């Protein structure tokens, strides 16, 4: 079902005097300078700031319905959206919001809302009375009801119901009228585009909110998102990240929130957390100022021997332990002992407890910082099912490769223990998915696991020793003994565990291009394309050999101090992987095969080599769709010839080259 947009032009909308459920996504550039982290700061509202008890239908009728209606999300635009420049408005209105909404409309189903939704008016006091299933304010309602920065239109509001301070003389306030309400929707999402104060915090892109919950099963039915105009990028290579950010924010409003855990229901619609008899709500957590969930939703787990540099510490973590989530994480990691899905324990109130733990789930889109290739996995869909409000269409789940089938040692122990065990002489195994190569000159890149990007190990030296529980090395290659405590990954939310990550090239602190292979905009300038790379929709990352690439003429030779991997076109045909370099095709016959490249371009002979990956890494899915398969590895037939160009120089040219003209070049675009 396509997103349905109702455009509302209004003037004079104010800003709410209370903080609704805020989820902030921002771009942060860490000390390393090359790795961009999109950080999410989901500030939960205080308990009294959300409007509860919107009566739509009786609870006994709602519980009888199957959870089979694809969720219908109505978009309502504030007039600020139309003040965006034409390019940004077109992107937001015609691409980002419709696609994000359409994704969740296909991924989630609810019990159908059959009656008209009319939202409650905000009361002057946080104390209310409930009479005949309806919420009544004391004496009066506020003249304006806000949802985030957006004024809720009168058409969407119910009448103002009031009682006196003793709960008597209850009824509809004089002159109050109900609006027509919202038909044919299960959730209304108010959208604004204001450059608010929050937008200046860490280059915030967007933040989201839920603001009202219905009475029968406590499901959120209204929310808000503000898009920060100054941070919206229309660059094609940033479209995927922007789209994922908006999906992320919508999901916080729909249910993935610390302020909603206590309201989750079981498969029969019964509360997972007991309710107080006097309020009908879960008990209040005074410290967090939100309702407290029970241990059958989130459980405190203690790891008494968490290995760190020089020994062990005790580590306490919070885990989602609802049935579907527990089953999914046990299956994903192949760890039947795993108690549940670990929640983030770092960041401010807006990050901790309301995202998946970055160390464990890296590029899952609902972690607290987006670093690369965000995916919405079965684990996130399982959480939405365990709210009791939704069922999930698991065909919409995206593959999460991080940690898959790596077992309990990966999911339940520190990355320090994983790295130490795998790198021991007796093991002889890779420390994947972590790494221990410090970013330094010369810059030697790698490929991400899915070969979608050129990447670097994000292990960097920090200015201060890391906290003991985040010291993940006893020794690091090429790092002086005693300095290990200063080294860790650039992503703090991943417990400073270092891993392979895509990055950006910058000039004068301006992003020139990224390292993701699929975007044509990331192609290097022809004068700097020493390794003859080609970025585009049908490109993948391939490793170079350990030798630097060279460019030669008869009078000059130069090497570039950046090599290790690059993006190239490929095709899957006749059971083989074929790599295409500068329109020449090179067939891979077995994994590890080295393909020598000698190609003349723009008067220079480019010399280097590529390493063939296993055919299945690149072609398996494509072949499977065509009912084909990768052929077994075999030696390259003697009759096979690959294209090679040669320089034809005079003896004088060779003499001149040999004495003085060998140049080492460092790419000036890398900001360290």
Automatic annotation (TrEMBL):
<dbReference type="GO" id="GO:0004222">
    <property type="term" value="F:metalloendopeptidase activity"/>
</dbReference>
<keyword id="KW-0482">Metalloprotease</keyword>
<feature type="binding site">
    <location>
        <position position="252"/>
    </location>
    <ligand>
        <name>Zn(2+)</name>
    </ligand>
</feature>
<keyword id="KW-0132">Cell division</keyword>
<dbReference type="GO" id="GO:0051301">
    <property type="term" value="P:cell division"/>
</dbReference>
<dbReference type="Pfam" id="PF01457">
    <property type="entry name" value="Peptidase_M8"/>
</dbReference>
<keyword id="KW-0378">Hydrolase</keyword>
<keyword id="KW-0732">Signal</keyword>
<dbReference type="GO" id="GO:0046872">
    <property type="term" value="F:metal ion binding"/>
</dbReference>
<keyword id="KW-0479">Metal-binding</keyword>
<dbReference type="InterPro" id="IPR001577">
    <property type="entry name" value="Peptidase_M8"/>
</dbReference>
<feature type="signal peptide">
    <location>
        <begin position="1"/>
        <end position="33"/>
    </location>
</feature>
<dbReference type="GO" id="GO:0005737">
    <property type="term" value="C:cytoplasm"/>
</dbReference>
<feature type="binding site">
    <location>
        <position position="355"/>
    </location>
    <ligand>
        <name>Zn(2+)</name>
    </ligand>
</feature>
<feature type="binding site">
    <location>
        <position position="248"/>
    </location>
    <ligand>
        <name>Zn(2+)</name>
    </ligand>
</feature>
<keyword id="KW-0498">Mitosis</keyword>
<keyword id="KW-0862">Zinc</keyword>
<protein>
    <recommendedName>
        <fullName>Leishmanolysin-like peptidase</fullName>
        <ecNumber>3.4.24.-</ecNumber>
    </recommendedName>
</protein>
<comment type="similarity">
    <text>Belongs to the peptidase M8 family.</text>
</comment>
<keyword id="KW-0963">Cytoplasm</keyword>
<dbReference type="GO" id="GO:0006508">
    <property type="term" value="P:proteolysis"/>
</dbReference>
<keyword id="KW-0645">Protease</keyword>
<dbReference type="GO" id="GO:0016020">
    <property type="term" value="C:membrane"/>
</dbReference>
<feature type="active site">
    <location>
        <position position="249"/>
    </location>
</feature>
<keyword id="KW-0131">Cell cycle</keyword>
<dbReference type="GO" id="GO:0007155">
    <property type="term" value="P:cell adhesion"/>
</dbReference>
């Amino acid at each position: 079902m396509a997103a349905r947009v109702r455009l509302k032009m209004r003037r004079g909308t104010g800003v709410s005097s209370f903080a609704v459920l805020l989820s902030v996504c921002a771009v942060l550039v860490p000390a390393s300078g090359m790795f961009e982290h999109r950080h999410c700061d989901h500030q939960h509202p205080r308990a009294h700031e959300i409007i509860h008890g919107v009566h739509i239908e009786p609870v006994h009728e709602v519980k009888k319905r199957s959870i089979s209606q694809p969720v219908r999300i109505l978009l309502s635009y504030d007039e600020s959206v139309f003040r965006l420049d034409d390019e940004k408005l077109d992107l937001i209105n015609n691409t980002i919001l419709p696609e994000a909404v359409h994704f969740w409309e296909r991924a989630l189903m609810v019990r159908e809302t059959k009656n008209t939704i009319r939202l409650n008016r905000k009361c002057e006091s946080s104390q209310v009375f409930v009479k005949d299933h309806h919420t009544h304010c004391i004496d009066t309602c506020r003249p304006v009801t806000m949802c985030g920065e957006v004024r809720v239109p009168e058409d969407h509001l119910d009448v103002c119901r009031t009682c006196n301070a003793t709960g008597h003389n209850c009824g509809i306030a004089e002159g109050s009228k109900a609006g027509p309400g919202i038909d044919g929707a299960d959730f209304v999402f108010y959208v604004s585009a204001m450059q608010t104060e929050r937008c200046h915090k860490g280059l915030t892109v967007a933040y989201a909110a839920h603001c009202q919950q219905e009475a029968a099963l406590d499901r959120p039915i209204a929310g808000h998102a503000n898009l920060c105009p100054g941070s919206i990028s229309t660059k094609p290579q940033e479209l995927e990240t922007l789209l994922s950010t908006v999906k992320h924010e919508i999901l916080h409003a729909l249910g993935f929130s610390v302020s909603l855990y206590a309201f989750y229901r079981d498969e029969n619609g019964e509360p997972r957390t007991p309710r107080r008899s006097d309020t009908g709500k879960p008990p209040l957590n005074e410290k967090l100022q939100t309702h407290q969930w029970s241990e059958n939703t989130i459980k405190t787990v203690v790891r008494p021997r968490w290995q760190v540099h020089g020994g062990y510490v005790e580590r306490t973590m919070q885990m989602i332990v609802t049935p579907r989530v527990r089953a999914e994480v046990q299956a994903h990691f192949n760890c039947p002992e795993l108690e549940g899905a670990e929640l983030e324990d770092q960041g401010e109130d807006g990050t901790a407890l309301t995202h998946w733990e970055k160390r464990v789930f890296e590029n899952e889109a609902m972690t607290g910082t987006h670093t690369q290739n965000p995916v919405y996995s079965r684990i996130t869909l399982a959480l939405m099912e365990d709210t009791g409000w939704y069922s999930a269409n698991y065909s919409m789940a995206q593959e999460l490769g991080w940690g898959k089938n790596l077992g309990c040692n990966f999911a339940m122990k520190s990355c320090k223990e994983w790295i130490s065990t795998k790198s021991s002489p007796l093991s002889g195994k890779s420390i994947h998915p972590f790494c221990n190569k410090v970013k330094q000159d010369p810059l030697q890149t790698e490929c991400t696991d899915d070969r979608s990007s050129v990447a670097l190990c994000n292990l960097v030296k920090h200015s201060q020793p890391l906290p003991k529980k985040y010291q993940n090395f006893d020794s690091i290659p090429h790092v002086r003994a005693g300095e290990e405590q200063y080294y860790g990954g650039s992503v703090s939310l991943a417990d400073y565990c270092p891993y392979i990550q895509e990055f950006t090239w910058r000039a004068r602190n301006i992003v020139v291009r990224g390292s993701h292979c699929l975007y044509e905009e990331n192609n290097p300038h022809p004068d700097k394309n020493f390794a003859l790379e080609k970025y585009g929709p049908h490109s993948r990352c391939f490793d170079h050999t350990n030798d630097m690439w060279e460019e030669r003429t008869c009078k000059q030779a130069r090497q570039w101090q950046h090599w290790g991997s690059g993006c190239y076109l490929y095709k899957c045909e006749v059971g083989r992987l074929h790599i295409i370099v500068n329109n020449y095709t090179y067939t891979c016959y077995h994994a590890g095969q080295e393909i020598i490249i000698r190609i003349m371009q723009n008067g220079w002979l480019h010399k280097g080599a590529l390493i063939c990956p296993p055919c299945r890494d690149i072609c398996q899915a494509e072949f499977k769709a065509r009912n084909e398969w990768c052929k077994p590895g075999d030696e390259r037939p003697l009759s096979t010839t690959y294209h090679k160009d040669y320089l034809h120089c005079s003896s004088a040219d060779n003499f001149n080259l040999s004495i003085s003209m060998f140049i080492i070049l460092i790419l000036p675009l890398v900001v360290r």
